[in-house]
Amino acid sequence: MGKPLRVLIVEDSEDDALLLIFELRRGNYAPVSRRVETADTMRKALEEEDWDLVVSDYVLPGFTGLEALQVLRDSGLDIPFIIVSGKIGEDTAVGAMKEGANDYLIKGNTSRLIPAIEREMQEAQVRRKKREAEAALVRSERRYKRLVAAVTDYIYTVTLNEGTVTRTSHGPGCLSVTGYSDEEYQQNPFLWYQMIHEEDRPAVTSLTEELRAGKEIPSVEHRIRHKDGSLRWVINTVVPRYSEQGELIAYDGLISDISERKRAEESLRVQSAALEAAANAIVITDRNGIVLSVNEAFTRMTGYTLAESVGRDLSFLKSDRHDAELYQDLWSTIMAGKIWHGELVNRRKNGELYPEEQTITPVMDQDGLIKHFICIKQDITERKLAEQALLQNTSMHKEMEIARQIQLSLLPAAPPLLTGIDCAGRCVPASHIGGDYYDILLHGERLDLVIADVSGHSVGAALIMVETRSVLRAQMPALDGPAQVVAALNEILHDDLSRAELFITMSYLSYHRTSGRLRYSNAGHPPPLLYRPAEERFFELDAEGLILGVQRRVAFDEPAVQVEKGDLLLLYTDGITETQNPSSELFGVQRLKGVLAREHRKPSVAIIDAVLDALRAYTGNTSFDDDISMLMLKFLP
């Protein structure tokens, strides 16, 4: 039975590989081999299997022995690499050895193959053992350093002569605890005294007097100043030595660094204080749910004191609002070591039910066994009320949005296509719904224009606006001229407006498309503006008339004006002119006229956009405090 040998063969000739295997078997090896021809297959082979040896041809199609050597070096593996080739000269072979090849052989002359393999295998084993020894040494050094670092105790001895300290000696652990070596203590006999914190020196130095008096002294905890300047807590345990005559001649002390313990105690004190100061109720139970501790917030929330709660199962808080499945799910979750979070309705001591949000966290020991549960409870009564109010508000918001969409749908979806007239309209409600209304009514050669503003921004204002639209569209065909229309609206709407304590301002205009004559009436509304660019002149189309809904049988004036080609007509609501800047100054009619004069060459839609942009720039806001509506007609040349 030959010696096992796992060999990776880098060779493009299967026959040459078989000859190599034959030579290995003749050399008393039992080879397990794999042949590769490319860098990728070689990398894969090195990753997938362990090899004792790599034997490579020097020249392969698209791959060389030196490239194969580089693949091996990139893998980080320490495996002997031998080149066997019939096309390698001495210079090339020397270069390959310099690159890291372990040996080279000429094909057909492999008598050196077996000795070379045995030599390289032995050297590889030596290197392997050396690496293992070095790794073991590193591990040993690390273990020693950890042990030294873990030593927190050391023994010191104080020698006395007639009650006076004559010598101190400190064990090797003193360096890790104090930062000073025994040599430094020998050089400075007062170093130990100087190292003790100023406030603790009297208690420590009094030990000698108590020892002289033959008293048994307990261990003393005190602070020392470490060599690095930091404060450390130590526990100092002293054992006296007396002469045959009973004289104190020395004492031995054991010093332990307890800084970590002190920090833990301080942390525990802070945590305990935080527990009591916490706004949320906190309960600590054992693994069976028996109460071990509660904080003050628990008493405030439930009415049960610490004495009334300790030793009881938390089920004393249960209400009858939950079925058994909820509690079974809770217990299966926390007993599996998971956190349970949910909402429960519990009962206070006075019988009152209340909702609480609860989080139960298992606390495990070092073996992973559940020892305690920490339960954090929060009374969420106010939050539940707020959520309910939010839901109601959300529902109201949705209903208002629907009302807004309905209201906007009553405005003209798009202006009518009129020969020689560019027309556009826009309504921007201050809230979801508003009281502004505009319309364009075509009746033969007569084009009626209306803009109105119902007082307020309530649902009532929106309903009155809808009623106004309905009445207007029903009455307009039977009436002749703006004055009759506005008077009829006042009579029909008077009672509804009085009961609702609302009123309407309105401008109503009637334009005859053939003659160009424009008649208009006004019911307390901002007068429409007619701008004539040819003359750079504005006409305010105002007329005598009372606000709708104030009294019955009101007479309205009906002046007229001749419209010329190129004129610009704007109907608007007072939300524009009464818009205020941060200094409470009104936008006013003059600024509105300035925008119209500056932008009159643009289409009607663009002029409306320009007015809105000017208002936003003036206020510095994107929204408005009042409804804004505009109806724009541009009489084309």
What does this structure look like?
- This protein is of the alpha+beta class.
- It is 39% helix and 29% strand.
- A five-stranded parallel beta sheet has the order 2-1-3-6-7, with helices on both faces.
- Helix 2 (39-48) runs parallel beside helix 3 (65-75) and helix 18 packs across helix 19.
- The longest helix is centred in the N-terminal third of the chain and has 38 residues, at 113-150.
- The model is unreliable at 147-151 (pLDDT under 50).
- Residues 218-270, 338-392 form the PAC domain.
- The modification 4-aspartylphosphate is found at residue 57.
- Residues 6-122 form the Response regulatory domain.
**Uncertain regions spanning at least 5 consecutive residues:** 147-151
Largest sheet: 5 strands, parallel
Q: What is the overall silhouette?
A: flat
Strand order of the largest sheet: 2-1-3-6-7
The share of residues in helices is: 25-40%
Strand content: 25-35%
Oligomer: single chain
Care to count the β-strands? 27
Could you tell me how far the N terminus lies from the C terminus, measured between alpha carbons in angstroms?
A: 114 Å
**Chain-averaged pLDDT:** 84
Class by SSE composition: alpha+beta
Cα gyration radius (Å): 50 Å
- Number of H/I helices: 19
Summarize the structure.
The chain is an alpha+beta fold and 637 residues long.
Q: Descriptors for this entry?
A:
hydrolase; PPM-type_phosphatase-like_dom; alpha+beta; Bact_Sigma-Reg; single chain; 637 residues; phosphoprotein
